[in-house]
Amino acid sequence: MKTVSISELGKIFGVKAPLPRQEKVKKCRKCGTEMVHPAGTNVYICPGKKDGKECGNVFYTKN
User: What share of the chain is helix, strand, coil (3-state, %, to 5)?
Assistant: First the structure.
């Protein structure tokens, strides 16, 4: 018996599978840069700069 992934099931039934957690894109509210999501954590960190200084914005998810 073959193991089927969620993305393969989505293709079979014509449904879009959800993106894995680390591929979701979140934009910083302070500077507009895409926030980085280290895998296995519930934190998004902004690597951008605002007014010549590091933004340092951090967003925590509920999980």
Answer: 15, 20, 60
**Annotated domain spans of the chain:** 20-60
41 touches 34 (CB < 8 A): no
* H-type alpha helices, the chain: 6-13
> What pTM value is reported for the model?
0.52
Q: Locate tokens 């914005």: which residue? A: 57
Backbone angles phi, psi at 9, to 5 degrees: -60, -40
Could you read off the pLDDT of 6-54 as tens digits, one per residue?
A: 778 888 888 876 666 555 678 888 888 888 888 788 888 888 887 888 8
